[in-house]
Amino acid sequence: MSIKLYITTAVVSCATILSGCQTMPSGPNVAVMPAPGKPFDLFQQEDQQCRNFAANSVGPAAQAANDSAVGAAVIGTALGAAVGAIGGRGHGRAVGTGAAVGLAGGSLFGGSYAQDASYSLQRRYDIAYEQCMYSNGNQLPQPQQQRVIYRY
To answer: What is the value of pTM for the model shown?
Structure first.
């Protein structure tokens, strides 16, 4: 395997790892309504304050998720490359090809881990946002209650 292919594989793996990194949620995924009679300008100010509060609340968790995702990708990539190299050697294939396949698989594992953490970050952001908006007297959406009909 040529050095050029190793470099290409490394670049693709790094791009995959970095694409899995978390970003802060761009905003809430919940609809909050202003309290009856509240001026819309005041509601907008509270909305901005609560977005900042929510972002500050999940900031450390987002950094920890990024660190974990990158760590999982690096470990997965290293293990995948090692297993791929060993597997490639045992079957008469080029060791470099097995390592490259393992490298790609490990990188995808890290990206998958990051995607799982993304849902948790968004949910934590939404909860912090709702708490802040509720404390300012705004109306939160009510959960839908399911009607249970018993038939005898």
So the answer is: 0.55
